[in-house]
Write a structure and sequence with these properties.
alpha/beta
């Protein structure tokens, strides 16, 4: 049953991210480089600038494992913004595993434009079945991807399986607050085409059960609220590029659903932050 759930969730995620409207939204409203939440210096900062700061914040947690002789797995790599930054900043080799071939084509094109083909390998596949041997990576990295998993314990086991002893697992994800009402979360689960969110407690317990040491959660939920408020501004006053990239009906749906997500964030029903642990 768990395998069926994982396969079904992978199919849903693939369909979601391959959709033209979704791809257009992420490529234009989110900047087309990083498609995860940002850490904001102020409430009106550009989304792409804040999103890059998140990458830098995660890297700071694992920088002792990053270098020209290290290998990173980016699970759910999207357009590859984090992979390119890591490869460019540290000279490490990055295996970018992602379910959407639409995103992967853009990822490869951007790698080629920036001369990073030799450091980044883009692989189309699922993080429930990572095509790598045991203890392959110094760092396993993921940003807002595990929310799409239909079997999160399995995905985390796979992440730890391919991690070297002493290696780091670091990720961010969209999470629910403990006891959050389902109806408050529904606008976001429906938009992302997922069933439910995990909680930070779930992730911390899972990582400890898998034998990771130094497990910690850094709550950055206030930045999630700012991010959705910024997205709502982009949707209410869309730039020409966004208008041309998505349908009017999709923009209208976002104009209805995003205020509901903002409200859920303000009520404290949604969580976002970093989780980190080391394999013994």
């Amino acid at each position: 049953m768990a395998e069926d759930n994982a396969a079904q969730a992978a199919d849903v995620a693939r369909t979601y991210y391959n959709a033209g409207d979704v791809d257009g939204f992420y490529a234009h409203a989110w900047g087309g480089e990083d498609i995860h939440f940002g850490v904001y210096a102020d409430a009106h900062e550009a989304i792409d600038v804040a999103s890059r700061r998140t990458v830098e914040r995660l890297a700071a947690k694992v920088c002792d494992a990053l270098g020209s002789d290290s290998t990173v797995l980016d699970m759910g790599s999207g357009y590859g913004g984090a992979a390119r930054w890591l490869a460019g900043q540290f000279g490490c080799h990055v295996v970018a595993l992602n379910i959407s071939e639409v995103q992967n084509r853009r990822h490869r094109e951007l790698n080629s434009e920036r001369g990073l083909d030799g450091l980044i390998e883009v692989v189309t596949g699922s993080f429930h079945d990572i095509p790598a041997p045991d203890a392959r990576f110094d760092v396993v990295w993921s940003q807002e991807a595990l929310c799409h998993s239909g079997d999160r314990p399995s995905a985390l086991r796979e992440a730890v399986r391919v991690l070297k002893p002493g290696g780091h697992l670091v990720f961010t994800d969209i999470m629910a607050a403990e006891g959050a009402p389902e109806e408050e979360l529904r606008p976001l689960t429906q938009r992302l085409a997922i069933t439910e969110f995990a909680t930070s407690r779930f992730y911390e317990e899972q990582l400890r059960a898998l034998g990771l040491s130094g497990v910690d959660f850094e709550d950055l939920s206030d930045h999630m609220l700012t991010h959705y408020e910024r997205l709502l501004e982009e949707v209410r006053s869309p730039a020409p590029g966004l208008v041309n990239a998505v349908s009017a009906a999709y923009l209208e749906r976002l104009g209805t659903s995003l205020p509901q997500v903002v409200a859920a964030c303000r009520k404290g029903h949604l969580r976002w932050g970093t989780l980190h642990g080391c394999r013994r």
